[in-house]
Write a structure and sequence with these properties.
Structural class: alpha+beta
Number of strands: 13
Domain N-acetyltransferase: 142-289
Largest sheet: 13 strands, mixed
GO molecular function: acyltransferase activity, transferring groups other than amino-acyl groups
Radius of gyration: 19 Å
Helix content: 25-40%
Shape: globular
CATH class of the largest domain: Alpha Beta
Pfam family, one: Acetyltransf_1
Protein name: N-acetyltransferase domain-containing protein
Number of domains: 2
Strand content: 25-35%
Low-confidence stretches: none
Length: 289
Amino acid sequence: MTFNVTQLNDADEFVGCTAALRATDLIGSSLIASIAEAARKANDGATQFWIAATKEPTAYALTSSRGVVLSPFASPEDADALGECIAKNVTYELPQVNGQADSIEAFARGFSRVHPNATFHHKFTILVYELKALAIPSNVPGALRVATKELDLELLIEWSNAFFKHVNESFAGVNTFVTGYLERQALFVWEVNGYPVGFLSFSEPFLVGNTTVYKIGPVYTAPEERRKGYASAMTAALSQRLQQLCPTSSCRIMLNADAANPASNKAYQNVGFVLHSESATYTIQHHTT
C-alpha cells in the first residue's frame, strides 16, 4: 500500500483535515490537538504539520524546534512513511520524537533511510489519564486561585524552570510559557493560609463536535510541601472549575504523568483519573560521519 505524505503549514487546514480521525481518540490525540490550537492562534508558522493518507488521512504528525509528535494510531507503515518524508524535508535537527513505542520504532526506520547515522534513545514513558468520576478531597487544607502577573510571575517562572528540570525537559521558552498562560488565565496556584505551595495549568482547550477536551499540566508542588495531598487537591479543584466553565455539552479532562513517578500517578488516581494509554519520548542523536 502506498502512503502519500503531505506537508501543511496552516494549522487551520490541519485541524480541519484531521478532525474526523482525531475524533476516534480525542484523549490520545490531545497533545497534537492542543499544540495545533496554540499554533493556530499564534499564527507564527513555527510548527509544520504532516498527514499520511491513502484516500483519507490515516495518521498525522507535527514538527517544531522541540521535536516530532506522532498521532496515537499511526500504523507501522504510516509512521515509516512519515519518518522518511519528515527527514527529507525538515531542514533543522529534530531533538526528539513522541508517540507510541511501536510507531516510534517504525518512524525511526523511515527517518534512518535518509539520515543513516541518526540514533534513537528512550528518554521517558508517559501515562495518559482521563477523568471519569471526580472525587474532591475533603481533608486537604488550602484553596485554588487564578495566578496573576502582579503576585506570582517571579515564583511561577522559578517553579516552571524547576518542573522542566525535574522532568529532564529542556525548554528555553519558560518565560513565554508563564506570561502566555497568565494572559489567558490558565495558571493557578494552591494557597494554604495565604502562602502558595504549588501551581498547575491547563493547555489551550480544543473542540471536536459538541466535546471540549482540556489537558491539565504541568502540576507542580514545591519540594518542601510534598506528600501533603496538595497535588490531588489542586488537580481536583481545577478539574471541577473546568467542568463548570466548559462551553459544550460534553467535557473531557485528561493529563499526563511520568510512568516512573508512582506518587504523581497515585495523586491523580485518587481524584478519579483512570489510565487511558501510554506514550514514549525518544531523543534523536544526529551523528556526523
